Known about the structure:
The chain is of the alpha+beta class and 145 residues long. The protein has two helices and four strands. Strands 1-4 form a two-stranded antiparallel ribbon. It has a two-stranded antiparallel sheet with strand order 2-3. A hairpin with a 5-residue loop joins strand 2 and strand 3. Helix 1 runs antiparallel to helix 2. It is rod-shaped and about 200 Å long.
Amino acid sequence: MKKIVIFAMALVAASTLFARGPVHRGPIPPPIYSSHHHHHHHHGSGGAIAAGIVGGALLGGLVASAVSTPAPAVVTPAPVVVTPAPVVVQQPVVVQSAPVVVQQPVYQTQNVWVEGRYVDTVQPNGTVLRSWQPGHYEQRTIQVQ
């Protein structure tokens, strides 16, 4: 629709530029009241109008084609965005083992029978006396697992 309106406007503008109206050579004389009827002759006015129409059509076609030609698309490349590589920090591997449980030994006190025996005793003068020590119970602490 836009092209038709532009074409029509160009046609009207061109036809007014190229068409020449009636050519008057000098001032128009005042009318004379007589029986003689005077005709004004317009020499060359028919051809000028046709030339104006043809010229307007040509000019309108040029204007319409100039308007309808799309402007070339401007392609701008996308900007290059540089992102730094992520820094990977590896955490040290911590291996936790089960705590080592050291079981404390359990001690128990018991009465233990000790057999009787002979005991040698050295006197200050160097003589040895042998005596009997009878059996008896002793309290001993033993480890129980």
